[in-house]
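Notebook p. 47: complex prediction with zinc ion.
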Amino acid sequence: MAAQENAFESALAVFPETVRTELKEVLDEGPVIPAERAASWIDHMSTSVGQLMIWLLPVAASYARVPISNYHVGAVAQGMPRGNSLAHLYLGSNVEFSGQALSFTVHGEQCATNNAWLHGETGLQALAINAAPCGYCRQFLYELTTAKSLNILLKANTNPNDYSYTTNPLTYFLPQAFGPSDLGLTGGLMESESHGLTISSGSNVAQTALQGANASYAPYTKDYAGVALQQNNQTIYVGRYAENAAYNPSMSPLESALALMNMFIPPQAPLNITAAALVEAQADISQKSATEATLASIAPGVTLEHVVAS
Ligand SMILES: [Zn+2]
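Predicted complex, structure tokens below:
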């Protein structure tokens, strides 16, 4: 734990003092760099948005929760243009689960994308990563509304003091791709969704999970699903199911909620989950057993509240 706290501090230490102070303030609120802040730091550091994203990678990686691999992935996603063509930036890191199959792992790219999506973004312009995206992530990202225009930014060399980077479209990393259009879909992941599901009973945690289910992305199975996790300080984090045309790189609603929570709390802080709810539509598949299994590894003793919505 101490090593990762140091990783966070040393990742911040390379920023000029003013930026470092403001960045710490921003991260205390959550894993989102507002566009105006990013613009002022870019100005202050005489850098570019791409280089700022590269600067931020070690900060994002310090949040990685990796008890199995000890391999820390950092990712920074750039949302869609706002006024003055600025965009918010979203941090992400990888998350692993002890005692569970490796297929439950959340990759850093998924975490940053999920973070942006849960904050209302409807696409990504660019994604910076501290290592080349694995095949699984290339497929996951190909589901995005902006898959055809998404740029992947990679550090150009291993020199920690050199922030130069390469830019290539996702399609460069995934030629001859299989994606939503092969299954007859015109939309994609991060498109604004509202499924109109309701539940007739359930705790306030379940009511929050319902919001996740209503905004979830499940065009292939219609298993619209959301998970809400409550911490001992009463904060509730809600995640959404994100399905994939190739099925396996789908991100479960629990992974989504936990990946978000992991970026909101200080690096390596205890999760302290006290309640969990899964709300999902009636469908040919279900998130229930996978959610219970994953929950058992991060919050043993917490019983999953499962509500089927109509
Ligand atoms: Zn990956």
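Notes: Strands lie at 32-33, 74-78, 89-93, 126-129, 151-155, 165-169, 225-231, 236-240, 273-281, 304-309. The chain has two domains: 2-178, 204-309.
Next step: compare against the earlier run before touching the bench.
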